[in-house]
Amino acid sequence: MASNPFEDIVGADFTCLKEPPLSPDKCPGSSFTQGGPQLDNEIGEWYCPACGVVFDTDEAPEDEFFDDDEDEAFDNDEEFVAEGDRLIRQTPEEKARVDRYNALNSLSADLGPINLRLSMYMEANATMIIDTLRELELGGEPAFEVRLLKPKVLAVSLFMTKRRLDAETYRIIKVNQRTVDTMLRALTLLRPSAGENDPMSENIRFVGNTLNLPTGIITIVTEQYEEAGRPPNRETDWRTRAAAWIYLMTKDLGLKVTKAKLKAVGGVKKNAFDRAVESYESSMANRNKDDEGVELLDD
User: Fold this and answer.
1) Where are the beta strands (DSSP E) in the chain?
2) Nearby residues of 90 by Cβ (< 8 Å), 6 or more positions away
3) 199-298 adopts what CATH topology?
4) Domain range summary for the chain, segments of one domain joined by +
5) Rounded distance, CA 230 to CA 247, Å?
């Protein structure tokens, strides 16, 4: 049985308390559904967004480390030990995504009474927002190298919705407007035609950047997908499709792009990855047979 990625928050023996109970893969207390447990900033407690139960934990909220302006917060030996304990149960990428989901949920809650449409958009598109943010961070975009999470999440959300907030809203949600504006300018330069990009290309770039593949390799892999006629795949998840395609296109190049590394990339569905690889292999094999048939008829 897979370990609970939120065991340090909900406890080792956690079971869903909703009536009727949700399955472990659907309960926010034991999976990444709805971003996992959410933090109530006012009372400093973690709670379940599905049933409202408050989890009993003495751990400090992880987002405090990123939203604290003092670098000393990262030098606390006791917190470092606790963080090490967490990393045993979570990969660095999983932990990074949970931190960003928590920041997004906190922002959404703060924005609800002020800008309900933006708040609802953030909740409904959390995965896409976090995926885009991780791509920017892993790609080394200078404007997104800061530790604070909320400005980065907000900047990506505003860019996607083409919305802007007034100074009073920034004051209420306690986010620095100049920091967000800097990120928005960077996004405008990086993605002048945002929303028009192909999801496969976007996900190939995300997976490639996560594995630190050279930019040239990522470009070639993307071009190979287009040249192959955008082959179909029985798996519908774009991130998993992209990982499978990268594996097939790079496995003989000596880049050490293994299945294990690809399955560890955030958003790649481990159980579906091998099926996606097999589906591409089958699709390409069938296409080659069809091409050979055409050549015989032409002769």
Assistant:
1) 38-40, 45-47, 54-55
2) 5, 98
3) Cyclin A; domain 1 (1.10.472)
4) 7-190, 199-298
5) 16
